[in-house]
């Protein structure tokens, strides 16, 4: 394109201005010149565009063309060429315009002829005048002159080579001719043309498009013929005869003149020596037996198939047992129910039979149904036989084998060897007496050290003393109107009978009136009275010491009404007392009042009427406290741990962690090394103090919380617990002096009798000091003696 | 500190290998791998910790022991498989080209023959090992011996199976090693004891086997291939151990006539034929004339005589042999010495159980198992109907030497039998003696089960129980060993039931009966004065309704209430029952006193049967309860793990107990029904 544009410029310069323009003014001319130039540039571009569009729509192109013609511009060569081409394709109605245009051109050309002559001698264009009278240059085709025989090379119209034509889809041209000119895409699809084409199909019309030229492919008659033959697998050549007459070149006919006149050679008539040699060789081989006469191969291959048998185990050496080798398990031998004529009891009921038949094959316990046949001749074939054998085969090579230890344990041997119940006797089994007469719950019971009386205290505020064996009420006293009696405990000395009872914040020391023998009563009173005055003599020391603090307890006489009943001493502490525990010698007793923080645990000295608070601050909620049965050790149970303190050294000895959520009570074994703990979370824990801080056994046999636990203190290996489910459980708990042997614990008996009232069952349990009897206090208002 | 060990490089992760990996490692196809595993006896394993082995995934996979696979790598069979594969390719190519002749030649000449003897030696280093694993092999081969040929199981293999099985049976007969046999619904079980190994195999009844469904005969064929090789070598060894030549002479002609066992002829080393198994039965069949028959009889008698004459000699020889081979009994010389146990020499006795008899098998009896069993237990002369095949001692039913005839036909009265068409005279005599028209004097007629029961019990049983048409006693498996608490059908009920069980059962039954009877009575009453009855009980029953319904309801309610009461009482029931007992005695005492006071004679209190039962039952129940309580008490002290274990054991025991109880109950019912039937008749 560049060359054409350059040319165009030249043309511009060379072209003389029209008179009219010059007349208009130079400035204008300059402007117009430049304008012209730019216009031309744009024009050319525009032309290109219009060309492109012309390919697509012929009609619009035509319009453009008309515009071009009117716009009086010098058309470029390329433009011309394309127009030329287009015109060729155009139908008749555009013809008149073309002729007009050409007429213009010729006129233009004529006008300019003289001007151009000198400039270029061998000029390759003709000058005509266009419609406006301007000269118009029409260039001739450039004739490349080659001095080769290329001229008679076939006219390749398209030079793009062997590339798909689709690359040119977006362009108006479809390639370049040998001169580098675009070959424009022939307009096609023009409705009218198509219609015309369709009306009379030209000869050799195929409807195909030649990809090389883009023109419709037309085939001549001959070419079609060739194609036809090719499709029929015929020889393409015209007039080819596939079956020509046979020509007998060598016939059986004896010609008069032979082809060769040579005589027949001698060898044709003499036996061959070489052959004889070979035959002799074979004969010799046969004679020597090297060649066997042919025998058909033996038919019975069974002989071949079968291996010769020999003693495979001639030198057998046993293989050592390998742990990974698991021999296949043998199938179990058949049982009675597999018999063809089993005992009648092995035959299935109709119900069993129906169940078996209904069950899925895999769910059946046995793969067969026992069946009775009265004679051997009636036994049918077993239809699953092959299948069973096949399954066995699958098992043998497909089933993973595992060596499983069979549970061949006698279940009896698993059970621990327990002493027989006879050896464990005596233990309480039945309810022997019921102590009736309390109103509301009985909170606490206690049996006096001689084993004659039972003291009880309950919700009604009374302390009652009963005769143990008969259940007769001997004595009572109302300690408090509003508070329940939470704890009653007899002093452990046998020569006196002093009962400690707690109601609210008050602790009462009682010598029941008129039921004891006079000397016992007297000695008891003496014990209680001994303390009077000690507190009075003391104040001097206390006042000259530190400032008078409020004493932890106030000791006083309870008043004439109670004193008349035998309630002789009253000690008031800061908060309600729930548990009383006597020291073994009877001089001290400990009380626990869970609500009083620093004064929760108090130790009282009876002989001095003195109260001490051993703990300045106690971790956790105090639940219970006990003295060690032989050593100066004091146990305090808080909500979830039990601590033991050495009273002599005044230090912490051990912290037991029963792992319970809420300890309700505990008891120390008379030996002092074992401890049972009852908890509100239904557990009974046995602690061996020597063993660990964790429980040795955890027993959970109760459905409800355990309220009280008690060891038999009189040498019998018994302990009991009382629970809210209304039952007592009696255990055998034997502690052997030998450190190597653990305690044996055997559950013995569940005693039921107490009724559960408002989800409370048995509140307290105590053992008789000597006999295997125990007394329990129930929420139903009764106490029961079990023996 | 050592280097940190990488996970999955040792231990279980390395010890086990999945099947896919194994196949890849061996570079063979999956079917080839399967064959190899079957031949070599390699089986999947179950690793103890699957997660460790499969690197955390818990998908179901089969694992092999890595060393097993490693050991397969050196297997010569692997090369054979590869060769086979290449030849198979060549054959396929030839077939593709349509060169059938080439293909068949290639198949004939190039396909490698697989030999398994080295594998057998590897798998069973000692002969006893091989015997131990013979159960499956025998069952399989006996099955295949009875199967039709198949695409994957050619007729030749089946023939081979038949031959091997018969050879093995011959050995069992010759060595008298068969111990027990059992007729089950699946087939016939046999147990032989060879060199101290108990071998149990199952032979199907001779019917066409059902082979449909998802049965892969390629797998079974592989097993059969291995088992045939194994049994061949085992047979060789067994025969040579008896001094017999292996393979025994096989008479194809006799086999074609259904000779089976008789088609083989055992030969001793240098002794020639030892056993005269087959006789001239065929010739006898051909003889028709009476004279010839007589002659034949004479000959037969002679032969028998000869045999009898032969026998003592043999016996002498045998006794001598026995004398040398038998274990000497060791007598204890001094007093203070230990006595070592010695095996009993009763086997020989059992082995000659049927030796003195001549058996004849009727047409309807299964010949093969009977022949095998009888011969294995010493019987030398087994004859059968000519239809049953070749090789009989005699096919003549009227042979006087026959002592036992095995018959499996119902005994029909002779009138109902169809008339025998008038036979030619020569045949007349023969016809007369034939079962079931008449019986031969001096001959025992029995059903086949007699043979099995005799064998299992090791003695001759009363033949009258097994007479034709008689109801046979139950046939019991000889392998069930009674365990404690398990039901044993051979013992009377009374010996094995729990205390009070029978009484409980009786009560139940009585109650049922009573209910039934009361219903009947009620119904009768309704029938006679139905209107009255309705009027009487109008309060409770609506007029239109039947009486029995109402009464039933009330009964059940009462019983329900009782039940509920018992349950509610729980532990206290004991005490109560005691109390009631005490009450009863008190009342009796009072009555006695009263009687004394009135001067009457004290009538002994006659307990009714029901009361007695109830008492016994109560006692038993109490005892059981006490035991249970005691056990419960012990269990309370067990640690949890042991308690669980105990629970598992007890679960099994409970199941067994329940089963045996159900069986006892059934038996009791049956016995009762029988009694009732007897009483009626």
Verbal overview:
The complex is a heterodimer of chains A (787) and B (681). With 787 residues, chain A is α+β, with helices and mostly antiparallel strands. Chain A has a domain of 159 residues: Methylamine Dehydrogenase, Chain H (7 Propeller). Chain A is built from 18 helices and 35 strands. In chain A, the strands form ten sheets. Chain A has a five-stranded antiparallel beta sheet. In chain A, strand 1 and strand 2 form a beta hairpin. The radius of gyration of chain A is 68 Å and the shape is elongated. With 681 residues, chain B is α/β, with parallel strands linked by helices. Among the domains of chain B are: 98 residues, no CATH class; 149 residues, no CATH class; 115 residues, Rossmann fold (3-Layer(aba) Sandwich); 91 residues, no CATH class. Chain B has 25 helices and 13 strands. In chain B, the strands form five sheets. In chain B, strands 11-10-12-13 form a four-stranded parallel beta sheet, covered by helices on one side. A three-stranded antiparallel beta sheet of chain B has the order 3-4-5. In chain B, strands 1-2 form a two-stranded antiparallel sheet. In chain B, helix 3 packs parallel to helix 12. The longest helix of chain B is centred in the C-terminal third of the chain and has 41 residues. In chain B, 26% of the residues are buried. Chains A and B meet through helix 12 and strand 32 of A and helix 3, helix 8, helix 9, helix 10 and helix 11 of B. Chain A: Keywords: Nucleus, Repeat, Ribosome biogenesis, rRNA processing, WD repeat. Chain A: GO terms for molecular function: ribonucleoprotein complex binding.
Q: What descriptive keywords fit this protein?
A:
heterodimer, A: 787 residues, alpha+beta, Methylamine Dehydrogenase, Chain H, five-stranded antiparallel sheet, disordered N terminus, B: 681 residues, alpha/beta, Rossmann fold, four-stranded parallel sheet, three-stranded antiparallel sheet, 25 helices, 55% helix, PES (chain B), ribosome biogenesis (chain B)
């Amino acid at each position: 394109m560049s060359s054409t544009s350059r040319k165009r410029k030249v043309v511009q310069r060379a072209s003389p201005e029209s008179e009219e323009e010059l007349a208009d003014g130079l400035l204008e001319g300059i402007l117009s010149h430049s304008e012209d130039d730019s216009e031309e540039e744009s024009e050319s571009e525009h032309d290109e565009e219009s060309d492109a569009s012309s390919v697509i729509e012929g009609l619009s192109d035509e319009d453009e063309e008309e515009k071009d013609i009117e716009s009086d511009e010098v058309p470029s060569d390329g433009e011309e060429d394309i127009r030329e081409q287009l015109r060729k394709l155009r139908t008749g109605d555009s013809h008149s315009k073309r002729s007009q245009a050409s007429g213009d051109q010729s006129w233009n050309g004529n006008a300019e002829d003289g001007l151009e002559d000198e400039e270029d001698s061998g000029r390759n264009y003709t000058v005509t005048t266009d419609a406006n009278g301007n000269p118009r240059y029409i260039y001739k085709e450039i004739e490349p002159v080659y001095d080769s025989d290329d001229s008679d090379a076939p006219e390749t119209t398209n030079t793009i080579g062997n590339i798909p034509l689709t690359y040119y889809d977006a362009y108006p041209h479809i390639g370049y001719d040998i001169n580098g000119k675009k070959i424009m895409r022939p307009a096609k699809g023009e409705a009218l043309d198509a219609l015309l084409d369709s009306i009379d199909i030209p000869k050799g019309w195929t409807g195909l498009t030649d990809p090389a030229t883009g023109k419709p492919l037309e085939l001549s008659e001959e070419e079609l013929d060739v194609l036809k033959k090719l499709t029929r697998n015929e020889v393409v050549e015209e007039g080819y005869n596939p079956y020509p007459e046979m020509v007998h070149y060598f016939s059986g006919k004896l010609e008069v003149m032979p082809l060769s006149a040579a005589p027949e050679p001698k060898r044709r008539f003499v036996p061959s020596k070489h052959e004889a040699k070979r035959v002799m060789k074979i004969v010799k081989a046969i004679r020597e037996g090297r060649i066997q006469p042919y025998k058909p191969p033996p038919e019975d291959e069974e002989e071949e198939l079968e291996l010769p048998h020999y003693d495979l185990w001639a030198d057998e050496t046993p293989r050592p047992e390998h742990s990974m080798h698991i021999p296949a398990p043998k199938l179990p031998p058949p049982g009675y129910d597999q018999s063809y004529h089993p005992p009648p009891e092995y035959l299935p009921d109709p119900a069993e039979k129906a169940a078996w038949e209904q069950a899925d094959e895999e769910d059946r316990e046995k793969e067969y149904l026992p069946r009775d046949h009265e004679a051997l001749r009636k036994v049918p074939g077993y239809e699953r036989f092959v299948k069973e054998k096949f399954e066995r085969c699958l098992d043998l090579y497909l089933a993973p084998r595992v060596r499983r230890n069979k549970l061949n344990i006698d279940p009896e041997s698993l059970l621990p060897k327990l002493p027989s119940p006879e050896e464990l006797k005596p233990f309480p089994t039945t309810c022997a007496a019921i102590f009736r007469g309390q109103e509301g719950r009985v909170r606490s019971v206690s049996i006096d050290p001689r084993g004659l009386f039972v003291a009880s205290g309950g919700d009604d505020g009374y302390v009652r003393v009963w005769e143990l064996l008969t259940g007769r009420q001997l004595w009572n006293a109302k300690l408090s109107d509003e508070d329940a009696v939470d704890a009653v405990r007899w002093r452990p000395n046998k020569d006196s009978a002093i009962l400690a009872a707690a109601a609210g914040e008050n602790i009462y020391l009682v010598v029941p009136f008129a039921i004891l023998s006079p000397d016992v009563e007297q000695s008891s009173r003496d014990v209680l009275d001994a303390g009077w005055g000690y507190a009075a003599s003391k104040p001097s020391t206390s006042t000259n010491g530190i400032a008078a603090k409020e004493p932890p307890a106030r000791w006083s006489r309870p008043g004439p009404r109670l004193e008349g009943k035998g309630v002789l001493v009253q000690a008031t502490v800061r908060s309600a007392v729930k548990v009383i525990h006597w020291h073994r010698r009877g001089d001290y007793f400990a009380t626990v009042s869970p609500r009083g923080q620093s004064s929760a645990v108090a130790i009282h000295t009876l002989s001095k009427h003195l109260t001490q608070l051993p703990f300045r601050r106690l971790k956790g909620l105090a639940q219970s406290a006990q003295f060690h049965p032989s050593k100066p050790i004091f146990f305090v149970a808080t909500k979830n741990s039990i601590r033991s303190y050495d009273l002599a050294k005044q230090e912490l000895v051990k912290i037991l962690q029963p792992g319970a959520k809420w300890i309700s009570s505990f008891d120390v074994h008379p030996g002092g090394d074992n401890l049972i703990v009852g908890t509100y979370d239904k557990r009974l824990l046995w602690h061996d103090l020597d063993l660990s801080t964790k429980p040795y056994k955890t027993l959970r046999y109760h459905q409800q919380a355990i309220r009280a636990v008690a060891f038999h203190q009189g040498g019998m290996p018994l302990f009991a617990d009382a629970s809210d489910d209304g039952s007592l459980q009696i255990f055998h708990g034997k502690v052997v002096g030998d450190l190597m042997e653990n305690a044996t614990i055997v559950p013995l008996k569940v005693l039921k009798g107490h009724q559960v009232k408002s989800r409370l069952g048995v509140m307290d349990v105590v053992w008789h000091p000597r006999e295997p009897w125990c007394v329990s206090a129930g929420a139903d208002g009764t106490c029961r003696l079990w023996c | 500190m050592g280097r940190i060990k990488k996970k999955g490089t040792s231990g279980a992760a390395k010890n086990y290998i999945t099947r896919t990996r194994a196949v890849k490692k061996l570079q063979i196809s999956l079917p080839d791998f399967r064959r190899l595993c079957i031949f070599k006896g390699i089986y999947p394993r179950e690793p103890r910790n699957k997660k460790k082995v499969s690197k955390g995934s818990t998908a179901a996979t089969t694992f092999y022991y890595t060393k097993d696979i490693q050991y397969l790598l050196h297997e010569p069979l692997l090369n054979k498989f590869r060769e086979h594969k290449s030849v198979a390719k060549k054959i396929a190519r030839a077939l593709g080209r349509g060169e059938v002749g080439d293909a068949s030649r290639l198949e004939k000449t190039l396909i490698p023959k697989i030999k398994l003897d080295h594998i057998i030696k590897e798998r069973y280093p000692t002969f006893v090992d091989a015997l131990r694993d013979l159960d499956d092999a025998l069952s399989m081969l006996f099955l295949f011996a009875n199967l039709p040929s198949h695409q994957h199981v050619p007729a030749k293999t089946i023939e081979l199976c038949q031959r091997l099985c018969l050879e093995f049976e011959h050995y069992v007969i010759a060595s008298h090693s068969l111990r027990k046999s059992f007729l089950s619904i699946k087939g016939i079980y046999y147990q032989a004891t060879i060199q101290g190994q108990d071998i149990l195999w199952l032979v199907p009844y001779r019917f066409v086997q059902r082979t449909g469904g998802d049965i892969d005969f390629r797998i079974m064929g592989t097993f059969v291939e291995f088992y045939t090789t194994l049994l061949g070598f085992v047979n060789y060894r067994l025969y040579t151990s008896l001094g017999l030549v292996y393979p025994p002479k096989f008479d194809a002609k006799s086999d074609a006539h259904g000779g089976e066992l008789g088609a083989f002829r055992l030969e001793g080393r240098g002794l020639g034929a030892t056993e005269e198994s087959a006789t001239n039965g065929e010739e006898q069949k051909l003889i028709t004339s009476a004279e010839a028959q007589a002659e034949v009889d004479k000959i037969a008698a002679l032969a028998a005589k000869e045999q009898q004459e032969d026998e003592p000699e043999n016996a002498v020889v045998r006794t001598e042999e026995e004398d040398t081979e038998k274990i000497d009994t060791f007598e204890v010389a001094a007093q203070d010495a230990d006595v070592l146990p010695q095996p009993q020499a009763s086997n020989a006795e059992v082995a000659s159980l049927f030796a003195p008899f001549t058996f004849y098998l009727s047409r309807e009896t299964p010949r093969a198992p009977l022949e095998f069993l009888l011969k294995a237990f010493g019987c030398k002369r087994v004859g059968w109907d000519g239809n049953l095949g070749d090789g009989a001692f005699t096919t003549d039913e009227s042979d006087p030497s026959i002592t036992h005839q095995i018959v499996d036909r119902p005994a029909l009265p002779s009138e109902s039998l169809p008339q025998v068409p008038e036979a030619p005279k020569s045949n007349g005599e023969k016809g007369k003696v034939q079962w079931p028209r008449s019986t031969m004097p001096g001959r025992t007629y029995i059903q086949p089960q007699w043979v099995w029961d005799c064998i299992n019990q090791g003695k001759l049983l009363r033949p009258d129980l097994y007479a034709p048409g008689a109801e046979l006693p139950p046939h019991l498996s000889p392998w069930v060993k009674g365990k404690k608490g398990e039901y044993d059908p051979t013992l009377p009920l009374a010996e094995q039931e729990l205390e009070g069980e029978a009484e409980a059962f009786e009560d139940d039954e009585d109650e049922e009966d009573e209910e039934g009877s009361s219903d009947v009575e009620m119904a009768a009453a309704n029938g006679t004065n139905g209107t009255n009855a309705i009027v009487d009980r109008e309060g409770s029953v609506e007029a239109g309704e039947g009486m029995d319904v109402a009464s039933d309801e009330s009964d059940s309610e009462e019983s329900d209430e009782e039940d509920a009461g018992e349950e509610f009482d729980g532990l206290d029931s004991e005490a109560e029952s005691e109390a009631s007992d005490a009450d009863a005695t008190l009342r009796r005492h009072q009555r006695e006193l009263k009687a004394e006071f009135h001067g009457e004679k004290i009538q002994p209190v006659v307990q009714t049967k029901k009361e007695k039962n109830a008492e016994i039952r109560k006692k038993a129940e109490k005892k059981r309860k006490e035991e249970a309580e005691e056990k419960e008490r012990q269990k309370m002290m067990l640690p949890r793990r042991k308690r669980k274990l105990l629970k598992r054991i007890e679960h099994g025991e409970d199941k067994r107990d329940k089963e045996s109880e159900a069986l006892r109950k059934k038996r009791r019912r049956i016995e009762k029904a029988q009694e009732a039937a007897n009483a009626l008749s």
